[in-house]
Amino acid sequence: xxxxxxxxxxxxxxxxxxxxxxxxxxQAQQNVLWTSQSKxxxxxxxxxxxxxxxxxxxxxxxxxxxxxxxxxxxxxxTLLKLGRxxxxxxxxxxxxxxFKQELILNDGYAQISGTNGKLNAQINVWVDVxxxxxxxxxxxxxxxxxxxxxxxxxxxxxITKGKENNQNSYKWAPQGIVKTRRDEIAFNNNAVQFYHQxxxxxxxxxxxxxxxxxxxxxxxxxxxxxxxxxGVMQGDNMVAAGNYTGTYLGTPFNGxxxxxxxxSNSAQITVALNTSKVGSIAIWERDLNKISRASNHKASxxxxxxxxxxxxxxxxxxxxxxxxxxxNYQLFRxxxxxxxxxxxxxxxxxxxxxxxxxxxxxxLKYTPDFRNWGGGTxxxxxxxxxxxxxxxxGDFEMMKPQFDFYLHNxxxxxxxxxxxxxxxxxxxxxxxxxxxxxxxxxxxxxxxxDFNKGMEHNAWLEYEWDTVLEFCMMILETERYNGxxxxxxxxxxxxxLTFFKEHYTYLAKQxxxxxxxANGHLVLYPGSGAETYKMAYNSTSTIAxxxxxxxxxxxxxxxxxxQKAAWSEMLKLIPPINFxxxxxxxxxxxxxxxxxxxxxxxPQLYPVYPWGLYGIGKPGLDxxxxxxxxxxxxxxxxxxxxxxxxxxxxxxxxxxxGAAKLTTAKMKDSGRRFPAFWGPGFDWTPDHNWGxxxxxxxxxxxxxxxxxxxxxxxxxxxxxDVHFKLHAPYKTIVEGKLKNGNLTDLKVVPEARRADVINMxxxx
Length: 764
Description:
Shape: globular
Number of helices: 18
Number of strands: 31
Helix content: 25-40%
Structural class: alpha+beta
Low-confidence stretches: 1-27
Strand content: 25-35%
Largest sheet: 15 strands, antiparallel
Oligomer: single chain
């Protein structure tokens, strides 16, 4: 429930408001409004900006915030929160009957207000998009005392046992005792200063030794070494007011309080955060003190205003599920915008907005630092779904952290390949650490003595290394969509492709005298069709990836002729996709052969999405549709939960009813107080690859692109009125309205691209 007002009444109110805004404005952001306080952190509201995320809620008259920031990895590669802030006002305006907490989407901040008798007060909570500073601005019509407390559960070392190690890189295979080390927290004059300084030895050192790379250690990039992160909380005219202890949801904590010197009508509290690899606390403090705490809310509001003008999808329909889908699309895009300038990509397993784990799974009685599937560990199959939708929403700058993640790890991946197999190319595994090596638990500690050092000894992940090509394709797409200069990333793309040519030639020569098959193609064995079709021979997902990236490089205007010739020769080596039949229907096969099925993905449809070998207006569409309709594995695996892509496949194939059903199921209200806190699905809450795949599906229902062609409404129900603005290749922006089945107010920039737009609404 969103508030004490009934869910139905709220939806009715928002629908009437939407109708009004639809006719009066190009923007129709629906704020999230709560008129009752929250029970706990699971009922929190996301607020953020730049690279900071907050979980904001009001519980028993007190305001709470969890603090998160991109890149705060400890010795074990847990993505640590930066503590919790509590605000307490006396007299308390939130002890009365009137309460409101509102996420003001268009301006990117939250406002909390309350009335208790004649006392009225308001708190604006916002994050400076351009400086790592959290602002809490308190105002009231009467003089009140404001207390701000910094609370930390990391006041002492904590031994992590059992499943709690899923928050770090050791997972189920800790090597000895694993500890989350204590933070340093103290009053600094009238402020509270806190920081975590990584110890000299980290999980990086453990993984390097495990994977036989100690002789190359000095060459490897180490993101955990000398890392210090934390911040300082202070307030105007506020003084230190003592310490206290407590317990929240079973987790003990210590608190440090500052309060206003005397009752006042206003208070301004800031929390400045700093993360840096300096190794010296003195240098870290110096850099922290340089951060501007000046209140320039207008600049951040302007950034958010422009963000929302850049792209949107607003639906007005009698189908309430369709309206929910569009609203939650916007809410999830807001959450992504909170890490626009992160030093690391938005994590698929909760982003910056995780909360106490027992509220997701009652058996997990751990600290707020917990998230399933690790902090510094990146699962590529999941991460890609967070970033693909940013192309059509025009959020190109937000893709940089994900691209840089691979670029910064390129040398480590190349060294790994050379050490293990003696050939060139970057080997990026599926469970990839933020230092470019396989996750040590997935790599395997109990390995046969002669097992190759380059391989993960893992039934799900073995031979799965083609997902990097999706990020290579995203990089190429930012050039095509927005004209981005991608020169710095070309070595990454080249090395990722080189690995496949070199490695499968190497493996073939290990088996026999010939390195190619009878048709002159690489023998892609052993391989993997995602995590599902294992020990695969000529995996379809790998073939489609190699073929598409190579073709794009060859046709790319900036590619030198000599390099084009080399890519053209490699393209000739890529084997064709294989097929199989079900009840007489020809379908795309996941591979030529495979030994077992390990998971529930459908990589036989990856040629449809993301690779676009099949689709609207292309040959073989009937074969791709057959795969969706008749392949028994695809049917058995079909779902809307988590990272499932069935809604995207249906949209790409022009299957309107299926796309609408699956996308609305995926994007319906989460069941939690904040509608876009989906999960845990297969991962964690809030599940970001759940939201990302939902965004992609809705975009593909509305607009698809093929070279210069722009298809509008290829899988769109004609009774879903919509106002949209999306981005297409060649610096093209398409905006329009569909009302009563008719396209109106179509704007295409540049105008010359209007000739490439194909309206498919109402087609049979």
